[in-house]
Amino acid sequence: MPFARLATATTPTSHIGLGLAAVGRPGYINLGREKDLGETRTVEALRTRTHELLDAAYAQGVRYFDAARSYGRSEEFLADWLKSHPDRDDIVVGSKWGYTYTADWSADAETHEVKDHSVQTYDRQRAETANLLGDRLDLYQIHSVTPDSPALTDKELHAKLAELAATGVTIGFSTSGPAQADAIRAALAVTVDGEPLFRTVQSTYNALETSAGPVLAEAHDAGLAVIVKEGMANGRLAEPYAPDALKAVAEETSLGTDAIALALILREPWAGVALSGAATAGQLASNLHAAVVDLDEDQLARLGALAEDPHAYWEKRGQLPWH
Predict the structure, then answer these.
(1) N or C, which end of the chain is more exposed by having fewer CB within 10 Å?
(2) What's the half-sphere exposure (Cβ side, CA atoms, 13 Å) at 123?
(3) d(Cα 196, Cα 224) in Å, to the nearest integer?
Protein backbone atom coordinates (compact mmCIF):
# COMPACT_ATOMS: atom_id res chain seq x y z
CA MET A 1 0.00 0.00 0.00
CA PRO A 2 1.76 3.19 -1.15
CA PHE A 3 0.00 5.29 1.47
CA ALA A 4 2.16 3.62 4.11
CA ARG A 5 4.79 6.15 3.00
CA LEU A 6 2.63 8.93 4.41
CA ALA A 7 2.39 7.25 7.80
CA THR A 8 6.06 7.98 8.50
CA ALA A 9 5.88 11.60 7.41
CA THR A 10 6.80 14.17 10.04
CA THR A 11 4.52 16.94 8.81
CA PRO A 12 0.71 17.02 9.20
CA THR A 13 0.36 18.39 5.68
CA SER A 14 1.22 14.93 4.37
CA HIS A 15 -2.45 14.13 4.96
CA ILE A 16 -3.46 16.81 2.47
CA GLY A 17 -3.09 15.88 -1.18
CA LEU A 18 -3.16 18.00 -4.31
CA GLY A 19 -5.81 17.17 -6.91
CA LEU A 20 -5.20 18.42 -10.44
CA ALA A 21 -8.78 18.59 -11.74
CA ALA A 22 -8.85 22.39 -11.67
CA VAL A 23 -5.54 23.03 -13.44
CA GLY A 24 -5.22 20.17 -15.92
CA ARG A 25 -7.80 21.65 -18.33
CA PRO A 26 -9.16 25.12 -19.13
CA GLY A 27 -12.76 24.40 -18.12
CA TYR A 28 -14.12 23.00 -14.84
CA ILE A 29 -17.14 23.47 -12.58
CA ASN A 30 -15.36 25.12 -9.63
CA LEU A 31 -16.76 28.50 -8.68
CA GLY A 32 -14.46 31.51 -9.09
CA ARG A 33 -12.32 30.14 -11.90
CA GLU A 34 -12.53 33.42 -13.81
CA LYS A 35 -10.62 35.07 -10.96
CA ASP A 36 -8.34 32.11 -10.27
CA LEU A 37 -7.14 31.43 -13.80
CA GLY A 38 -7.95 34.57 -15.75
CA GLU A 39 -8.29 34.43 -19.51
CA THR A 40 -4.88 32.94 -20.39
CA ARG A 41 -5.47 29.21 -20.25
CA THR A 42 -3.19 27.86 -22.95
CA VAL A 43 -1.64 24.44 -22.53
CA GLU A 44 1.70 25.97 -21.60
CA ALA A 45 0.14 28.45 -19.18
CA LEU A 46 -1.59 25.68 -17.25
CA ARG A 47 1.46 23.42 -17.47
CA THR A 48 3.48 26.19 -15.80
CA ARG A 49 0.79 26.78 -13.19
CA THR A 50 0.55 23.07 -12.43
CA HIS A 51 4.31 22.79 -11.97
CA GLU A 52 4.34 25.83 -9.69
CA LEU A 53 1.58 24.28 -7.57
CA LEU A 54 3.39 20.94 -7.42
CA ASP A 55 6.61 22.68 -6.36
CA ALA A 56 4.79 24.66 -3.67
CA ALA A 57 2.90 21.61 -2.44
CA TYR A 58 5.99 19.45 -2.17
CA ALA A 59 7.94 22.20 -0.40
CA GLN A 60 5.15 22.44 2.19
CA GLY A 61 4.95 18.73 2.91
CA VAL A 62 2.28 17.49 0.49
CA ARG A 63 3.13 14.01 -0.78
CA TYR A 64 0.02 12.71 -2.57
CA PHE A 65 -0.82 13.95 -6.07
CA ASP A 66 -4.05 13.01 -7.83
CA ALA A 67 -4.75 13.10 -11.58
CA ALA A 68 -7.13 11.42 -14.05
CA ARG A 69 -7.37 10.65 -17.74
CA SER A 70 -10.32 13.07 -17.97
CA TYR A 71 -8.53 15.98 -16.30
CA GLY A 72 -7.29 17.31 -19.61
CA ARG A 73 -3.48 17.08 -19.59
CA SER A 74 -3.09 16.54 -15.85
CA GLU A 75 -1.20 13.26 -16.24
CA GLU A 76 1.10 14.84 -18.80
CA PHE A 77 1.80 17.87 -16.59
CA LEU A 78 2.43 15.64 -13.58
CA ALA A 79 4.66 13.30 -15.58
CA ASP A 80 6.78 16.21 -16.81
CA TRP A 81 7.22 17.43 -13.24
CA LEU A 82 8.11 13.97 -11.92
CA LYS A 83 10.74 13.51 -14.64
CA SER A 84 12.36 16.78 -13.57
CA HIS A 85 12.51 15.53 -9.96
CA PRO A 86 13.52 11.85 -10.19
CA ASP A 87 15.00 11.93 -6.68
CA ARG A 88 11.66 12.59 -4.98
CA ASP A 89 10.83 8.99 -4.14
CA ASP A 90 8.55 9.79 -1.19
CA ILE A 91 5.70 10.90 -3.46
CA VAL A 92 2.50 8.88 -3.92
CA VAL A 93 0.93 9.27 -7.38
CA GLY A 94 -2.67 8.38 -8.15
CA SER A 95 -4.68 8.58 -11.35
CA LYS A 96 -8.06 7.45 -12.58
CA TRP A 97 -9.58 5.86 -15.66
CA GLY A 98 -13.20 5.58 -16.78
CA TYR A 99 -13.87 9.06 -18.18
CA THR A 100 -12.50 10.28 -21.51
CA TYR A 101 -11.68 13.96 -21.90
CA THR A 102 -13.55 15.25 -24.97
CA ALA A 103 -13.40 19.06 -24.72
CA ASP A 104 -10.31 19.45 -26.95
CA TRP A 105 -8.92 22.17 -24.66
CA SER A 106 -12.05 24.31 -24.82
CA ALA A 107 -13.81 25.74 -21.78
CA ASP A 108 -16.99 26.06 -23.84
CA ALA A 109 -17.27 22.53 -25.18
CA GLU A 110 -20.74 21.01 -25.27
CA THR A 111 -19.40 17.80 -23.68
CA HIS A 112 -16.27 17.86 -21.51
CA GLU A 113 -15.96 14.18 -20.61
CA VAL A 114 -17.63 10.87 -21.40
CA LYS A 115 -17.97 8.04 -18.88
CA ASP A 116 -17.35 4.42 -19.86
CA HIS A 117 -16.29 1.67 -17.44
CA SER A 118 -15.87 -1.04 -20.09
CA VAL A 119 -12.85 -3.32 -20.41
CA GLN A 120 -12.08 -1.68 -23.75
CA THR A 121 -11.85 1.77 -22.16
CA TYR A 122 -9.70 0.39 -19.36
CA ASP A 123 -7.27 -1.21 -21.82
CA ARG A 124 -6.96 2.00 -23.83
CA GLN A 125 -6.63 4.36 -20.90
CA ARG A 126 -4.31 2.07 -18.96
CA ALA A 127 -1.92 2.17 -21.94
CA GLU A 128 -2.22 5.97 -22.11
CA THR A 129 -1.49 6.34 -18.41
CA ALA A 130 1.44 3.91 -18.59
CA ASN A 131 2.92 5.86 -21.48
CA LEU A 132 2.95 9.04 -19.38
CA LEU A 133 3.48 7.96 -15.79
CA GLY A 134 5.27 4.65 -16.25
CA ASP A 135 6.48 3.15 -12.99
CA ARG A 136 5.72 6.34 -11.04
CA LEU A 137 2.05 5.35 -10.89
CA ASP A 138 1.19 4.01 -7.42
CA LEU A 139 -2.61 4.01 -7.47
CA TYR A 140 -5.05 3.46 -10.34
CA GLN A 141 -8.71 4.16 -9.59
CA ILE A 142 -11.99 3.55 -11.40
CA HIS A 143 -13.41 7.04 -11.86
CA SER A 144 -16.84 7.82 -10.33
CA VAL A 145 -18.32 4.43 -9.56
CA THR A 146 -22.08 4.48 -8.96
CA PRO A 147 -24.24 1.53 -7.84
CA ASP A 148 -25.20 0.76 -11.46
CA SER A 149 -21.63 0.82 -12.77
CA PRO A 150 -20.69 -2.29 -14.75
CA ALA A 151 -17.26 -2.02 -13.13
CA LEU A 152 -18.79 -3.55 -9.99
CA THR A 153 -19.82 -6.77 -11.73
CA ASP A 154 -17.49 -7.20 -14.75
CA LYS A 155 -15.35 -10.24 -13.90
CA GLU A 156 -13.10 -9.75 -16.91
CA LEU A 157 -12.34 -6.22 -15.76
CA HIS A 158 -11.73 -7.44 -12.21
CA ALA A 159 -9.23 -9.99 -13.49
CA LYS A 160 -7.35 -7.31 -15.45
CA LEU A 161 -7.27 -5.01 -12.42
CA ALA A 162 -5.97 -7.87 -10.29
CA GLU A 163 -3.21 -8.45 -12.86
CA LEU A 164 -2.21 -4.81 -12.52
CA ALA A 165 -2.28 -5.12 -8.73
CA ALA A 166 0.10 -8.07 -9.00
CA THR A 167 2.67 -5.72 -10.60
CA GLY A 168 2.59 -3.47 -7.52
CA VAL A 169 0.01 -0.86 -8.53
CA THR A 170 -2.70 -0.36 -5.90
CA ILE A 171 -6.27 -0.60 -7.22
CA GLY A 172 -8.94 1.80 -5.99
CA PHE A 173 -12.15 3.51 -6.99
CA SER A 174 -13.83 6.89 -6.62
CA THR A 175 -17.51 7.59 -6.13
CA SER A 176 -20.00 10.32 -6.99
CA GLY A 177 -23.69 10.97 -6.59
CA PRO A 178 -26.27 10.69 -3.81
CA ALA A 179 -25.84 6.90 -3.54
CA GLN A 180 -22.12 6.91 -2.74
CA ALA A 181 -22.70 4.70 0.30
CA ASP A 182 -24.34 1.99 -1.83
CA ALA A 183 -21.51 2.11 -4.36
CA ILE A 184 -18.86 1.82 -1.64
CA ARG A 185 -20.54 -1.15 0.02
CA ALA A 186 -20.87 -2.91 -3.34
CA ALA A 187 -17.20 -2.28 -4.12
CA LEU A 188 -16.11 -3.61 -0.73
CA ALA A 189 -17.71 -6.93 -1.68
CA VAL A 190 -15.71 -7.31 -4.92
CA THR A 191 -13.10 -10.06 -4.69
CA VAL A 192 -10.72 -11.86 -7.04
CA ASP A 193 -9.62 -15.34 -6.00
CA GLY A 194 -11.10 -14.69 -2.57
CA GLU A 195 -9.14 -11.49 -1.95
CA PRO A 196 -10.58 -7.94 -1.88
CA LEU A 197 -9.81 -6.14 -5.15
CA PHE A 198 -9.95 -2.54 -3.97
CA ARG A 199 -7.49 -1.09 -1.47
CA THR A 200 -8.50 2.59 -1.64
CA VAL A 201 -11.71 4.61 -1.94
CA GLN A 202 -11.98 8.26 -2.97
CA SER A 203 -15.31 9.90 -2.19
CA THR A 204 -16.97 13.29 -1.92
CA TYR A 205 -17.35 14.38 1.71
CA ASN A 206 -17.62 17.93 2.99
CA ALA A 207 -19.59 20.16 5.34
CA LEU A 208 -22.54 20.13 2.92
CA GLU A 209 -22.40 16.44 1.89
CA THR A 210 -21.72 14.07 4.80
CA SER A 211 -23.82 11.07 3.75
CA ALA A 212 -20.86 8.84 2.89
CA GLY A 213 -19.22 9.29 6.30
CA PRO A 214 -20.47 6.10 8.03
CA VAL A 215 -19.58 3.80 5.13
CA LEU A 216 -16.19 5.47 4.68
CA ALA A 217 -15.57 4.53 8.30
CA GLU A 218 -16.54 0.95 7.38
CA ALA A 219 -14.12 1.03 4.45
CA HIS A 220 -11.35 2.30 6.70
CA ASP A 221 -12.06 -0.46 9.21
CA ALA A 222 -11.88 -2.97 6.35
CA GLY A 223 -8.34 -1.81 5.60
CA LEU A 224 -8.90 0.61 2.74
CA ALA A 225 -7.13 3.95 2.57
CA VAL A 226 -9.74 6.73 2.33
CA ILE A 227 -9.16 9.77 0.11
CA VAL A 228 -11.65 12.63 0.36
CA LYS A 229 -12.36 14.74 -2.72
CA GLU A 230 -14.39 17.91 -3.21
CA GLY A 231 -13.83 19.00 0.37
CA MET A 232 -14.56 22.54 -0.79
CA ALA A 233 -17.79 21.50 -2.55
CA ASN A 234 -16.48 22.86 -5.86
CA GLY A 235 -15.98 26.30 -4.31
CA ARG A 236 -19.25 26.51 -2.40
CA LEU A 237 -17.30 26.48 0.89
CA ALA A 238 -14.74 29.08 -0.20
CA GLU A 239 -14.95 32.84 0.06
CA PRO A 240 -17.15 34.57 -0.96
CA TYR A 241 -19.61 31.70 -1.48
CA ALA A 242 -19.33 30.02 1.94
CA PRO A 243 -22.36 29.81 4.26
CA ASP A 244 -22.53 32.38 7.05
CA ALA A 245 -21.90 29.78 9.77
CA LEU A 246 -18.64 28.75 8.10
CA LYS A 247 -17.60 32.38 7.65
CA ALA A 248 -18.27 33.01 11.33
CA VAL A 249 -16.08 30.11 12.48
CA ALA A 250 -13.36 31.16 10.07
CA GLU A 251 -13.40 34.65 11.57
CA GLU A 252 -13.21 33.23 15.08
CA THR A 253 -10.12 31.22 14.17
CA SER A 254 -8.51 33.94 12.00
CA LEU A 255 -8.27 31.46 9.12
CA GLY A 256 -9.98 31.05 5.77
CA THR A 257 -13.24 29.21 5.25
CA ASP A 258 -11.28 26.77 3.10
CA ALA A 259 -8.99 25.78 5.97
CA ILE A 260 -11.98 25.23 8.24
CA ALA A 261 -13.77 23.14 5.61
CA LEU A 262 -10.75 20.88 5.10
CA ALA A 263 -10.10 20.68 8.84
CA LEU A 264 -13.58 19.19 9.29
CA ILE A 265 -12.46 16.32 7.05
CA LEU A 266 -9.04 15.79 8.59
CA ARG A 267 -10.51 15.39 12.08
CA GLU A 268 -12.37 12.26 10.96
CA PRO A 269 -10.37 9.22 12.11
CA TRP A 270 -11.09 7.41 8.84
CA ALA A 271 -9.83 10.21 6.57
CA GLY A 272 -6.40 9.27 5.26
CA VAL A 273 -5.95 12.09 2.76
CA ALA A 274 -8.06 15.17 2.05
CA LEU A 275 -7.51 16.65 -1.39
CA SER A 276 -6.85 20.31 -2.02
CA GLY A 277 -8.17 21.41 -5.38
CA ALA A 278 -6.22 24.66 -5.31
CA ALA A 279 -5.75 26.54 -8.56
CA THR A 280 -3.31 29.12 -7.14
CA ALA A 281 -0.35 28.98 -4.77
CA GLY A 282 -2.20 31.33 -2.41
CA GLN A 283 -5.19 29.00 -2.25
CA LEU A 284 -2.88 26.08 -1.58
CA ALA A 285 -1.12 27.85 1.28
CA SER A 286 -4.48 28.73 2.81
CA ASN A 287 -5.76 25.16 2.38
CA LEU A 288 -2.72 23.76 4.18
CA HIS A 289 -3.58 25.69 7.33
CA ALA A 290 -6.28 23.04 7.78
CA ALA A 291 -3.66 20.75 9.29
CA VAL A 292 -3.38 22.90 12.43
CA VAL A 293 -7.01 23.99 12.94
CA ASP A 294 -8.52 23.20 16.35
CA LEU A 295 -12.31 23.47 16.53
CA ASP A 296 -14.35 23.43 19.74
CA GLU A 297 -17.63 21.59 20.30
CA ASP A 298 -19.78 24.69 19.73
CA GLN A 299 -18.08 25.41 16.41
CA LEU A 300 -18.43 21.78 15.33
CA ALA A 301 -22.13 21.84 16.18
CA ARG A 302 -22.73 24.97 14.12
CA LEU A 303 -20.82 23.54 11.18
CA GLY A 304 -22.60 20.21 11.51
CA ALA A 305 -25.91 21.96 10.88
CA LEU A 306 -24.77 22.85 7.34
CA ALA A 307 -25.26 19.33 5.93
CA GLU A 308 -27.75 19.13 3.09
CA ASP A 309 -29.89 16.29 1.84
CA PRO A 310 -27.56 14.37 -0.51
CA HIS A 311 -30.02 14.43 -3.38
CA ALA A 312 -30.34 18.22 -3.07
CA TYR A 313 -26.56 18.57 -2.84
CA TRP A 314 -25.88 16.56 -5.98
CA GLU A 315 -28.66 18.31 -7.87
CA LYS A 316 -26.99 21.65 -7.10
CA ARG A 317 -23.61 20.26 -8.13
CA GLY A 318 -25.07 19.05 -11.40
CA GLN A 319 -26.26 22.57 -12.16
CA LEU A 320 -22.85 24.20 -11.71
CA PRO A 321 -21.69 25.60 -15.06
CA TRP A 322 -18.33 24.81 -16.63
CA HIS A 323 -16.16 27.90 -16.33
Answers:
(1) N
(2) 6
(3) 10
